[in-house]
User: Which sequence fits this backbone?
């Protein structure tokens, strides 16, 4: 467990809407990080903020619930 599982363990304890983007990246944003894959994340962040802070309808499909084993 330890460091690599800290985000999934934290997300499981949150009782509010949450979305996490996890990947094999170094300490950088997923759109510019090494080793890849390059992931554009800002559109997902803006949609989440618009939905939960402005009350706009969600446009993305439901995401699977995170399960930590």
Assistant:
């Amino acid at each position: 467990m330890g460091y690599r599982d800290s985000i999934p363990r934290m997300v499981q304890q949150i009782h509010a809407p949450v979305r996490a983007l996890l990947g094999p990246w170094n300490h950088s944003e997923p759109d510019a990080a090494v080793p890849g894959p390059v992931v554009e994340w800002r559109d997902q962040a803006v949609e989440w903020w618009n939905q939960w802070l402005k009350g706009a309808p969600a446009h993305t499909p439901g995401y699977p619930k995170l399960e930590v084993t």
